[in-house]
Amino acid sequence: MDMRVLAFDGRMGASGDMILAALLDAGADPDVLAPVTDALEVEYKIDTVDKSGIAATSVDVFLTDDDSDGHDHEESDHDQGDSSHDHEHSHDHGNGHSHGHDHNHGHHDHGHDHDHDGVHAEGHGPHRSYLEVREIVADMDLEPAVERDALAIFELLGEAEAGVHGEDLESIHFHEVGADDAIADVVGAAALLHDLEPERVVTTPLATGGGTVSMSHGEYPIPAPAVVEIAERADWSLRGGPVDAELLTPTGAAILGHIAEGIETLPTLSLEGSGYGAGGYDLDPHPNVLRVLVGDGSGKGELVEDDIAVLETNLDDATPEVLGGLQESLADAGARDVSIIPATMKKSRPGHLVKVICKPDDRERVARALAEETGTLGIRDAGATHRWIATREFEAVTLEVDGDEYEVAVKIASDSEGNVYDVSAEYDDAAAVARETTLPIRTVLKRAEAAASVDRTGE
């Protein structure tokens, strides 16, 4: 069982157009962008540029409607502070993103916009509300999975902007981020990603850059406020530097926040392809590119190493209600796993040992939540370490009972070479089938696991 992995190298950040360009450079079919250009008055200008000696793909989004008012934009407030400050609005492409527009707009090395009659979409065109953007995306002729991802990315972007301004999601106007170029970036990235068909998408820590960014309400340090909001909700980590420029834009962060899980270093891959998406900055000697690697994630049959932190505390007076709620409350703070173990405390009194697994960067937030929820006076940190985890995937199997068909999800655990060593049906699905039939839950579980095993072996 090979797993097709798509890995982003986050050392120079990411923007919407850089993600588009990297996916195209890695072999995604540009024809899947047609629903965007059919629905909006925009076009993608795809070019090849040199970035510190690396041949990279660049993508610019242009308005095709000559009447578009290129000024209704106040710079996004957050959208990226474009370090390039050469335009006030920097938007999603901050990082150099592939377009020269974005930020670095001014200097793009693509040299193609001088011979283009259109107007850079960035910062131009109408501001749109979150609800308007959802409607535009829903009206496009998109594959269901692409539409789901695009809407989820805009929800993340909208929640971030709402969090920055203290407003409700439904009342948010995206300003720069709601312009047609942002829609082109988000929907385009979702479409190109699905065209490459990865089973897992990961990213190494994303560089934010440094310095400050000009937004409509003042100067803010990089990362911009919306990027910080998105990072709090995302699985990956941030890293400062390596230059004073806005390398990670809100749109780039939102796309990766939805599609990618965080890893510390690039995984072992049997490479099938790679791509370089150009940003708009010239940052010699640092190539301003987003690299993406695509390949088989299986290695030598080992489990996958995952960096974690382990927190623990002893509780001698926690109520059952508090203990029962810890799984949910600590997960909201970043916990990956919570174990509550009965223990004998001092003076032979009954109590509980709570052990929490989280990512190293989340340990402070998880510890605070644990203290607030339980009132514990001390939390031990076992230090950053690692765990060995199986590759997990879910397979839906169909069971026939008395002429009716029922679907049960089955979790398949394997090593990185695809050797399966555990097959377990989801209890809740099996319980639902048992309620509707005369079968015991245990029987449903066994049948579902047997069906999954047959599906995998073909026997």
From TrEMBL:
InterPro entries hit by this protein: Ni_insertion
Disordered: region residues: 65-126
Keywords noted in UniProt: Lyase, Nickel
GO molecular function, one term: lyase activity
Basic and acidic residues bias locations: 70-103, 110-126
Family assignment from sequence similarity: Belongs to the LarC family.
Entries under NCBIfam families matching the protein: nickel pincer cofactor biosynthesis protein LarC (TIGR00299)
Protein name: Putative nickel insertion protein
